[in-house]
Amino acid sequence: MIEALLRLMDKPEAFGEVYNIGTDQEVSIMELAQKVVAATGSTSEIELVPYSDVYPEGFEDMARRLPSVEKLQAAIDFRPMRTLDEIIADIVTEKRAALDLEAS
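Structure (tokenized):
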């Protein structure tokens, strides 16, 4: 992400534009939750909460997102290289290390 941001900062034509510098991998919230539970080895259950309990009346969100990095690649010849699973694993490792420091 840092590399993409630095490259975009060097491109005046990129100022004011919006770029996806994440991933082009589609993932549902359920799949994301399952990945986190698996990566942490947690026994937590995933709780399904009704849409109406989370968002105010009249709020509409996309049911499906299809992320694209084509605009980013065209602007700065950059494509994210890390997978979602790698990123989750890194975050789990970082958070566990922080907890270990707090416990010591």
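The radius of gyration is 18 Å. The chain has one domain: 2-103.
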